Amino acid sequence: MSDTTGDPLKTIQAQLSALLEERLTELDAILRASEATTQRIIAAEAELARHRAEKARFDRDMASLDTTVQTSAAELDALRARAESARSGRSEHEDEADRLKAEIAQIDGESEALRERIHTLQTEARTIRDENATLKRQLRTLEENVAQMQAAKAELRSSLSALTAQAQAVSLSSD
After folding, report:
1. CA 165, CA 175: separation in Å to the nearest integer?
2. What are the E-state strand segments in the chain?
3. How far apart are CA 84 and CA 75, in angstroms?
4. What is the pTM of this model?
């Protein structure tokens, strides 16, 4: 009996061993699957942490970019205002330049009229100088003529006095 009893026991033990082995194999497979799942979870958590860090960095970068965009927008507005001011100033300068050009053209016209007037006056002055020179010559000639006439008159008076004195002498002698 011990043989017969030992056999079923061995059989049960073998069955239990096989069942235990099967259960251990299943448990080992479950453990490996659990380890693999754990590894995937750990990798996913690491990936999630990396994504969160990247998101935080992107949020910081985005905040910095928002600040840069706001600063750039303010600078752009200031530049636009300066450009508009420059355009307005340029327009004012162009208007002033046009006004000055018109004033220069008017002054040029007046200058040309004055040049013509000066030329006319210079021509008249030359004509008057020539006439004055001619008149001075005529005056000298007339003065010389007057002096000659006065000399002739004085001579004639003197002759007349002499003739009168002779006529009186003749008339006294004939009386």
Report:
1. 15
2. none
3. 14
4. 0.39
